[in-house]
Amino acid sequence: MKSKIVVIGFIALVVTISGCIENSGLSNDSNSNLEDNISNHNLKISNNSSYDANGLCYHVVDGDTIDVDTVGRIRLVGINTPEKKQPGYLEAKNFVKKACLGKEVYLDIDNAKHYDKYGRVLAVVYVNGVNINNALLKGGYANIMYIRPSEFNPYSWTT
Questions:
Q1: Is 73 designated active site?
Q2: Listed residue (73, 71, 69, 89) closest to 81, CA to CA
């Protein structure tokens, strides 16, 4: 009986939160900003149908780290964005919020190294077929941070 109440309470919480995210206005603005970034930086839409995982982005930690409901904490592989109190931190974080928060994200998890030293899953993140790691680079919000081993070569994204 207690477990049923807990489950019902959890479901009610999820429905409430999803309603808040849906009504936050992020979904409308983010599509136009992401589309602007795609056209301004010649980003390619991926037709990759073999993503390793997908889920709802429910929290943006900073410009290169997000939380996904089905996987946990994700570190965008191959890039680095400014840390708190550094110039560009808020711009990078806000870009990722507009691109990912409250949306279904698709993950191409690094097959050469699944986790970083903090236990975050290393992945390329896609929203509506757009490589968000690449979009951060092309938009000037991130720098390349290529740490081997990695199946991804972020230098190839800049050509």
A1: no
A2: 89
Fold held by 27-158: OB fold (Dihydrolipoamide Acetyltransferase, E2P) (2.40.50)
Return the number of other C-beta atoms located less than 10 Å from residue 109's C-beta. Answer: 18
The answer to whether the beta carbons of residues 103 and 30 sit under 8 Å apart is yes
Active site residue 22: no
Give the pLDDT confidence score for residue 95 in this predicted structure: 98
> 48 pLDDT exceeds 70?
no
- Of 22, 73, 91, 120, which residue is the catalytic one? 120
Pick the catalytic residue: 22, 35, 83, 104? Answer: 83
The closest of 121, 108, 106 to 56, measured between CA atoms, is 106
pLDDT tens, 98-135? 999 999 999 999 999 999 999 999 999 999 999 999 99
> Helix or strand or coil: residue 68?
strand
Of residues 75, 104, 148, 151, which has the active-site annotation?
Answer: 75
pTM (2 d.p.): 0.72
Q: Is 120 a catalytic residue?
A: yes
Return the domain boundaries, the chain.
27-158
